[in-house]
Structure formats: C-alpha cells, structure tokens
Predict the 3D structure of the following.
Amino acid sequence: MRDIALIAIFAVLIPTIFRRPYIGALAWAWVSMMSPHRLAYGIAFDIPFAMLTAVSVLLVTPFSSQRKPFPVNSITVLLIAFVIWMSITAQTAINPDADAVFWTWKQVLKTQLMLLVSLMLLRGREQIVALVWVMVVSIGFYGTKGGIFTLINGGSFRVWGPADTFIEGNNELALALVTLIPLMYYLIRISANPWLRRGLWASMAFCVFSILGSHSRGALIAIFGMGTFFILKSDRKILMGLGFSALLATALLFMPEEWYSRMNTISTYEEDGSAQSRLNTWATIWNMALDRPIIGGGFRIGSDVLYYLYSPGPWIKSFDSHSIYFQALGEHGFPGLFMYLALGIVTWRSATRLARRAKGTEYETWVPLLMSMIQVSIVGFATGGAFLGLLHFDFPYYLAALVVLVKATIDEDKKIANPLTIAPSNPPSIRIRKPPHGINS
C-alpha cells in the first residue's frame, strides 16, 4: 500500500514540476531529507525518486519564466567555493578505494547543485514558509514516530532513523531533531489554525522524547545548548524557560536506569571505550592534517590506511570522524575547515542583519522570528556536531539557504517598489526656435 501511494504521489508530482518549477525545489528537499521511499517495502524502495525529481527540475529550470536571478552574496560565494574545494580534494583522496571516494563526491555534488538551483526557484514568504514546512515534516515525521516508540517502550530501546540515509544512526537522527525544533516553534508562532498549532506542540514534545530515546550523549549536550539559546532568543523568556524545562524534566524522569548509566559516561569519558575511540580518531585526523594541511585526506578518510599511517597510540580502528569540524579538517584540510566555519559565521551575521532590516517593515511579522530560530538551530547543530560526522548532511545547508532566500526576496521586492530611473548625467539643452516673422506660433 505504501508503495502504491508513493508511486501515485510522484505520478502527479513530476508533471506538476514542469508547470510550477518551485514545486520541484520543494519536492527535492522532501525526497533528500525524508527519503520517503525508505518507508516502503516493495518496488518503491529501489525506485530512484531523487533522480527523477532532480532531472525534472534541471530540465525545466533553464527554460522557465519563473526562474529568478541567482542570488550572489557572501553565503552563496562561500558555498560554491567550498563545493569547488571539496571537488579538488577528492582528486587527492588518501583512501585507496577510488570508487567509494567518487560515489561520495557525486552524492555531495548532487546535493549542493540542487540546493543552488533551488535558490533560483523559490521566492516570497509563501514559498519560503513552504520550504520550512517541508523541512519540519520531513525530519519531524521520524521524531514524532520515535517519540511514540519511546513512550510505548519506556525508553528501553534506541530510536533509529531511516535506512541508508544521513540520519540512519541514532546519534544522527537525534541531532537532526535538535536542529529541527526551533523551526517547529517558528511554524507554531506564525500558524493561525489552532489545531495545527496543537499538532506542532505535540510533535515537538514527541521529538524531545525521541532525542532522549536515541540514547545519544552528544544530542543530550546539544539539546541543552540549543534550549538555553532558544530561551535567550525568545520574546517570552520566562514562559518558554518554564515550558522547556518542564518538558525536558518530564522526559528525563521517564527514561530508564540504563539510559542514565550511559549518560553518566559523559563525565567519565576516560573510562569509556567509545569516548577513547573518538579521542584517538581526532588525534589521528590531526596528525594527518599536519602532514597534509592544504588538501587533507579527501572523502572517506576513515580507512585502514589512514590509521596505519597516523594513529598516535594503541590502534583503535574507527570509521567515523565523530565531529563535523574534524571531518572538515580531515577531508579538506585547513582551507576546507576555514570555509566551513566561515559559512556558518556569515550565515549567522546575515540572519542578524536581516532581522534588524525587517523591523518596522511589512516583513516584521515573519522575518525576525525566522532569523532568530535559524540561529538557534545553528547553535544546536554546531554543539551536537562537535561529536558527530555530519558534515555533508543537507539540513544545515538549507538553513543557510533560507537566509539567502529571505534576503533575495527583500532585495527584489525593494527593486520592484523603487525602480531605478536612469537619466543622462548632462541632459542636452533644448532651444526653442522662434517662428519666422509674421507667422503666429
């Protein structure tokens, strides 16, 4: 039944993309982040829905009258530079499995290309909010499902994400949900339908239970970091502080004893094998970065070759960088790390400027809150990402895309409202000739 429903959706969706290309941008975001075909069990499981969507969007975009100019600003310039640099470092990858390196590069390039194309197809409050909805529904579905699972099983079993996706692991899904919660709150604040707001509040609560039910220590740190900044950015600090604390306390009281035993290893990391493995991995990546500071190790640095050459102590094999920062450094060298950090900083500063710019204008009802919640999401991802290798997860890049789209919308609306009139700098003087004598003018 799921297979038939999914095939039917795309049978309608693909022709719609050719009439309304922005639908394709939203459809790509949905397929990329949610991977709905991974919820099927039959023929739909292996149908390349992402490829069909991407091809449709790429075919229609060059000829569409709805295409907007590509927004050139500090965020998009940094993003393109980062993609180019990743393509360069892929050519000198240390991993001897060239096919694996090429496959990873192709996936990253496809994701970033479609994101850049989407920046030419989406504009205006309606479409930007629609993109936020797609992001919330795509990841929030798994959070709601995982929260219910946690409640039913008393938190004794870990919550996992969809197979063969960036968020398949319990840690990865939990961090994605931490990053998502601020956007859920944004939709609650701008939604007029009371039942819709109640549903979002319930989904947010389930997401908190799902985060704890993942048994992820990094996500626990991230949710405290995100929650603290969430309260600070809220215009209802006391109310939100009490509400968030009550929800988190209720979820914590619900968790079983084995959950607390696992969380306690945060303070006794020197006795935990997983923590020691991460520390050894980071030391290995650092040694490699010192040896290859410019080009790094390329994609798929977690290979036997890397640890044989650069592991500092007892050889604890690990195939995950366990940190977005060490992953950027290890794969793409110090230039790649600086570009990645700069992208986050520039996105943050642009969001701040847009929030201020929108005050006292028609955008005040939706832009400042969106920019604040994007910043809260960045804090959550930056905190939890210190312990997870999710450098190429597309959700954080969509946060940057939202900032770009809001700026492009405001800039283009301003041009329409105040069209430039170009007058010659030295207009020619006009001399009126008098009519000949005897002729009335």
